[in-house]
Prior knowledge:
single chain, 750 residues, alpha+beta, PH-domain like, Recoverin, domain 1, 11-stranded mixed beta sheet, 7-stranded antiparallel beta sheet, EF-hand-dom_pair, transducer, lipid degradation, repeat, PH_domain
Amino acid sequence: MDPEGSCTEDDPHVKLMMEGSTLRKVKSRFWKKQRHFRLLEDGLTIWYKSGWAGKGHSKFSVSDLEAVREGHQSEVLLSIAEEFPAELCFTLVFHGRQGNLDLVAETPDEAQAWIQGVRKLIHKAQNMDEQGRQDQWVRDWFLKADKNKDGKMNFKEVKTLLKMMNVDMNEDHALRLFTMADKSETGYLEIEQFVHFYKILTQRDEVWKVFQDYSGDGEILTLEELECFLRVEQQEGELNCHRAEEIIQRYGTLESAGNQSAMTMDGFQAYLCSLDGSIFKPELLELHQDMTQPLSHYFISSSHNTYLLENQLTGLSSLEGYIQALKRGCRCVEVDSWDGDDGEPVVYHGHTLTKKILFKDVILTLRDYAFKVSEFPVIVSLENHCCLEQQTVMANHLLQILGDMLLTAPLDGQIPERLPSPQQLRGKILLKAKKSGGLETRLDENLPDEASDEEEVADGDPESPTLKDPQAEKENKKSKLSRELSDLVVYCKNVRFQGFEQARSNAKCYEISSFSESKAKRLSKEAGDEFVRYNSQQLSRTYPSGMRTDSSNYNPQDMWSTGCQIVALNFQTAGLEMDLNDGFFRQNGSCGFILKPDFMRDANSRFSPEKPEERPGYNPLRLSIQVISGQQLPKVNMKEGSIVDPLVRVEIFGVPVDQVKAETSHINNNGFNPVWNQTLNFIIHVPELALVRFVVEDFDKTTKNDFIGQFTLPFTCIQPGYRHIHLLSKDGTPIPPSSLFVNISISELA
Length: 750
């Protein structure tokens, strides 16, 4: 079942993990408690005793882990560095927004065993093929169902298992499946018999029907039959001959008498469940766009108040906010700087109870993490509230810590007529801040400031931040701008927006304005075409209303539809808006830059999101989605006997006329293999800007439906045909093997 399992279990580090260790779990300088940790027999689950008396314990899967950091590589472990040396410390980093686990071992050897052991297990989990994942899934269910841990399951344990798996099956049918699998007639299923039971349970009639439609003998698909399927159903065109050979080689071959490759039903299902059979075009997941155009021609993944992990009033400020945002492909982070004690500037949400972190630590974090996921530039949006002296301290930190990574002068020494490209700026960090004068002149720092980032831009806007002390802000306005800090601003000089007419006649390409969400929406509605033209030349940044003290988000699609590049979101808050952001930026190698459609890069564009039908080249498309079935949906209510009643909703996000949704009916008591066979139809007016979100919910007639899973992608990245959609959790992390099976058709309007 697990060909790699034995070699991993024989590894001395993994063996020690299985024997168990007493490690200190550290939450703060004052909370350090010993816990017994061990790796369970499945080689995948880490179990540890909780602090409560009696039987309390917690566990998590290795597949939940993204990495292991060695030494004092977290704020918590740095705070206890004098008490515990680096060779005893390590941090387990989880996928998504889950907090890290900071641990301290008794000896350096024990720390190394856990560090190396966990890394090997993460590597193994990440490199499993689809069959390996399925085997692991089966093995997990066997271990969950085998309550008395005797290595076999009786019928009572199987019935419990079916409930756990979200299956509501009558007892007679369950007994029939059990008897079919119990070939030795012992009344028990051992592991191999359980595999057979699982295979019967997961037979996919809806996939078998598609297979039968193209198989001449009902047993195999020949190369020609698979070519026909790829051409007719998957719309793969002229490449289908080569593709068919490739797919047969990859997912399951059968040598027939004539020595001709063919595909079995199992191979066909494996292909449909794979990346090749996924709804997202695999080639568009790779870096494929032209990266040589001006920065203003790209949408840029951007974070608001990056330092916050929670709400805007009392939330925790942390360097982890920057690490997590950069790991998600973010290319514009925000730094809110204020005067600190001992002459060291601090970062926090001013005039609130949020915790403070040192500015220099933020810059060290940027140095270490800016280019781990993407080589393209990072913009640091500095909201500067510091006195002259501490501004100079900030400038020195930026220069000394970042060195050559910091862009401090125009690339070719010339005053630019247009912004440089992401390609030209690879590996560079750009400062977005106030600047005295322009690139053309070097002015004395005593001249009046330019507009600051959010405070002044939002003057008069009822949604501007209201938590800040007006007197303190007034004083801040009078403060001077440090020459040293001003000189570090090159291509992103903050200026106040003074109207489209003024921008047309006077704006410099390196000037950038910020807009509150309400102001950006108003401009979009009143002068959408002008906003699009403006954004073809200038960078714009939008940010959430100051009233969103809970760190909620606005719909980024409203801003992208007018060409705004830097649409700043609270990355720490999971939900619809971050689903859209993650789905949009998943394309192009998740590099954080997406090239705008050509009609948004043209300075003479006539495109308006409010009137898309008036643009030249208007070509709406019909999208038809047959929602066929779901597979192994997770339970949302852990109450025993609770089974989900799933429905699927498809939501379109784009220009206003494209904001529509439709849903299937719900299926009673079946989260394991629900079948809908319902078709949802849409007209997409601006395909280039549309996002499609698939949401699965647990229907409840008395209260709000519970979220089960979702997947969001750009309309332009959809593969037509029979496709699987691999669902993500609310946090944006995979929940294998949960999926939807759909048949998608895209056509021109007749």
